[in-house]
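Form 7-S
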Amino acid sequence: MQIRSLNQAVMPELREWIVAQARAGVLPADILEAMQASGWDAAVARTALAQTLPQPARAATPPTAPGSVPVPEPDLRGASPVLHLPDREVQVLFRLQRPRAVLFGGFLSHDECNALMALARPRLERSQTVDRQSGGAEVNAARTSDGMFFARGEAPLIQRIEQRIAALLRWPVEQGEGLQILRYRAGAQYRPHFDYFDPAQPGTPAVLRRGGQRVGTLLMYLNAPEGGGATVFPDAGLEVAPAKGHALFFSYDRPDPSTGTLHGGAPVSAGEKWVATKWLRERVFV
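Output:
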């Protein structure tokens, strides 16, 4: 019997591929991640995996997730929809508990967005992801953007934005990675993924030595493409359309799918999408 969700059907060929991967020694968690990276809805992928593999193979799934850790958190205790930061007023447009997510309006001015794009443009290269085996960087077909990193505090504009992020999320500047700028041309996307580092992967210990786990993400939209490019959370049924100057924050208190932070960048159908990303770490990032 076929399984259907979000117009995706699990065909016999996919079941055969799952069985072949399991026989080759690939863990179920890694099979699941590969399916999601290829565009499969998380619920469909989990159901297909559970119904295809025998119980002994499923028992190899990694044990219970580690306990939660402190995460960045904006001060949303007041009733006002406006947060007064030292250098700017920011609107709270929506908030969710799971995933823990908040959308801020007007976090960056239009002039700041334009300046970031201009500074980044000469240094753009094909985006990379973390190599799960070595902890280094690699080009990955799941991510088809161009990007670059600013060193922390390397220019007055960067320093000002980093101080604003620290004030908004109540998290030290030193516990943040350098600001990353990404450009998605028409057709480019970033398939659903998690921002934390998978503890089961061999390369993760090397990455964690630089500042511990990632515990939060602030995604800042530098423009609005002519079509497409939404930030999607498949497990939550959430889509956030890019709007110039807005910033989407989400946190994850453990490196586990239970945080609900599986997310991706939907394909840009027309024009370009520019974003700036700040990842927050448990400890000082070096």
